[in-house]
Structures are given as C-alpha cells and as structure tokens.
Design a protein that fits this description.
Blueprint lengths: L1 E7 L3 H16 L5 E8 L3 H11 L3 E3 L11 E4 L7 H9 L4 E3 L7 H14 L3 E3 L7 H12 L5 E9 L16 H4 L3 H17 L3 E9 L4 E3 L18 E3 L5 E8 L4 E7 L8 E8 L3 E5 L5 E5 L7 E4 L22 H16 L7 H20 L3 E2 L1
Parallel strand pairs: 1-2, 1-4, 2-3, 4-5, 5-6, 7-12
Antiparallel strand pairs: 7-13, 8-11, 8-17, 9-10, 11-12, 13-14, 14-15, 15-16
The structure holds alpha-L-sorbopyranose.
Length: 378
C-alpha cells in the first residue's frame, strides 16, 4: 500500500517533513511507502517552486479541493489555518498531522479534538521533541522508577530572534493568526514534554506574559520569521502576542513545575532545556546537546553524562555506528515514521489531537492567570 500525502505549507516545517520523507525508505525500510501527492498554498509561483524542491507531484491553491483526495493530510500552515482544513480532512476520514500548538484558540483546539474523536483515525500534533532519543531514554528511566518520585520539573525554551526592535513583524507576532507568542510557539513544546515525561497532567498554574516591543517594521520580501531581514519601509505593525512568558505549575501528583520561554533571551538560539528532580535521582536535557542526557542516580557518583548514541538506544539502530551523533532533523524522521506507520496499520498514535488539546488547556490557563493576576485551574 502506498500512502498519498497532501501537505499544506511549504516553508520551515514543510522542508523539515519533506526531508524526513526522503530519509524514511533509506533508514526505516519497514516504513510504509509514501507518495508526495499534492502541496497546498496560496502563492502559485512560490508553490510551484516549492513543489519542485520538496518533491510533490502537483499543487493546489485551495485545500477544499484536495483534502479528501489523499490518504494523509499534513497541516503545516500558520496556527489560524489549523482548524478548518484539519476538521474537513477528518470529516472525510483522512488522518491528519497538525503543527503545534494545535490551534490559535482553545475553541479551535476543542473542535479539532472532537473531530478527531468522531473520525476515529490517527491524528498527530507535531511535538517532535518527544522523538529525540535522549528524551525517549529519559522517559524509560522515569517509567522504570530510576529517579523515584518526581518533585520538580523545570523547562526553559529560549531564543533571541526578536531582541532587535527592528527585527521584522511576522505572523508569529499576531494574536489573530498565532494565538499567542513565545507561550504557544515554544512553551507548548516544554509543557508537552513535561506532561509526557512525568505521565502526569498540570492542574493549576500561575503565569506571566510580557511584550517588550509593541510594534515592528513590515517584513521584506522573505515574509518575516526567524532569519528574516526588515524591508526598507518605515511602516510598522502592532505586536499583539507575548515575547516571553513564565509560569509556575502544580501537577496532579504533586510535582512542582516552572516554565519559561522567550524570544528575547539574548545569545540563546534554540536552547530548550528540561530538568527533572526525583526522590532517587535527577535528569537534565539540553536540546543544544541533544545526543546527551545527564543522569543522577542514587549511587553517590554525581551527575553522569550519558551519550545516547548506542544501537540499543531509541531509534539509533536505524542510523550510524555509536558516537556518530544525530541532529534536530532526525526528530522529524522518527515522528513521521511512527505516525505514517500508525496510519498504514490503522493503529492509534500519540501525541495526538487529545494531547494537543491538553497542552492548549494549559496555554489558555496561563493566559487567564496573567490576565487575572491569580493562580487558575487548568
Ligand atoms: C520558532 O520559534 C521555532 O521554529 C518553533 O516554531 C518550533 O516549534 C521550534 O521547534 C523551533 O523554533
């Protein structure tokens, strides 16, 4: 069986997934056969060029015309286009992978999760960091009880691409399109990782959001984004989302969480760290050293840096000999392998839209807490 793929969006995430599709048959020979069928976007010229580069057979400028013609639909568009195309695909019985956060609003995320439950086909929300081998190793250690009862989880996701007030405006600065800023874009990853690793859910939060620069110059031809240049124009647009957030959280089983994300953390490019302290040990992970996991066990030897690159480590038997490290892009290969295999075999998959909704509820609670100045229930 060959799964035909429809993909909405062809920029950053479009490239990341298309690269993963190319690696699948080479490194994961038991992955289902796939066909890059149709690429969806609005700008015909850019779309045709992207379809060529990313290997898609055809293009469409209206998702409504193709969403029911494919076996799997990848929704990689900006957050405000996650709901309608994904719900339409699910209503046609087509499995969907959506970028994170699940939607720009809690209402939208609820609609997506309801449509997923009714369709009863696999769905995925693209929390790709679950697929770092060191994170999977951490999950195994926690599940085996190696660090005992968990007391603390501390997660930061720090970037600095907006610290320059002249950095151009992009859709990521718009509440209407993105829903929130650093909170939904980066915090969603940390909150998902924390809930996944602990196997526990956040029950109440106290949050603080901050916007440091209230308006930005309109972008140049590249449309804005992480490595964009400003155009010559002096025209500006308002920034209507947070540049940074921090939150304290209480988990159902009593663990304390502290979270922070920023686009203003000068010098930090993609610093996603998570530390977990338990009664019998601790774990520390840093995305910028993603082949390593720091492990403290109850044996008096202090923190040990474990290189997670052995063939018996998660996914490593598919790649290179020990010590031949993996990178950020491999997380997408692992994610697409698991999701597409679940689709081909008609099995359930996680993280799915229900997991995406669980994260969205925490994002929403953090915003409500910021507005009210009080702790709020999720
Ligand atoms: C931009 O902040 C971004 O690309 C996020 O959108 C991704 O989810 C994150 O993985 C890297 O940074």
């Amino acid at each position: 069986m060959t799964l035909s793929i429809g993909m909405l969006g062809y920029r950053f995430m479009g490239k990341a997934h298309s690269n993963a599709f190319s690696r699948l048959s080479m490194f994961f020979p038991d992955a289902p056969d796939i066909e890059r069928d149709v690429l969806v976007g609005r700008d015909e010229d850019a779309l045709a060029d992207a379809a060529d580069r990313l290997g898609f057979a055809r293009t469409a400028t209206d998702w409504r015309e193709v969403v029911d013609e494919v076996d799997v639909f990848y929704n990689l568009g900006p957050n405000d286009v996650h709901v309608e195309p994904s719900v339409a695909a699910l209503e046609a019985g087509v499995p969907v992978l959506s970028e994170k956060p699940l939607a720009a609003t809690l209402d939208g995320a609820e609609r997506m999760a309801e449509a997923a439950a009714e369709a009863d086909v696999p769905t995925a929300v693209a929390f790709n960091y679950r697929y770092v081998p060191a994170i999977q190793h951490a999950k195994q250690l926690i599940d085996e009880g190696a660090i005992g009862e968990i007391h603390h989880v501390r997660a930061n996701y720090l970037q600095d691409w907006l610290v320059d007030p002249q950095a151009p405006w992009s859709w990521r600065n718009s509440e209407e399109i993105a829903g929130s800023g650093a909170l939904g874009d980066l915090g969603a990853h940390s909150i998902d990782l924390a809930q996944y690793l602990l196997g526990d859910s956040i029950e109440r939060v106290s949050g603080h959001l901050k916007t440091f620069v209230e308006e930005r110059p309109v972008p140049g031809a590249d449309g804005g984004g992480l490595d964009a240049e400003s155009g010559d124009s002096v025209e500006t647009r308002p920034v209507t989302v947070d540049d940074a957030y921090s939150a304290q959280a209480e988990f159902a089983n009593g663990a304390m969480g502290t979270f922070e994300a920023s686009r203003f953390a000068n010098g930090q490019k993609n610093a996603h760290t998570i530390a977990i302290n338990g009664s019998d040990g601790s774990l520390r992970f840093d995305l910028e050293r993603l082949n390593e996991l720091e492990v403290l066990r109850d044996d008096g030897r202090g923190f040990e840096t474990v290189l997670v690159t052995d063939p018996d480590d998660p996914y490593l038997d598919h790649w290179w000999p020990p010590g031949h490290v993996l990178g950020w892009e491999h997380t997408f290969v692992h994610e697409d392998y698991e999701f597409l295999s679940a689709v081909a075999e008609g099995e359930s998959y996680g993280p799915n839209f229900a997991d995406g909704l669980a994260v969205q509820r925490v994002l929403d609670a953090i915003e409500r807490s910021d507005e009210s100045g009080r702790w709020v229930e999720v």
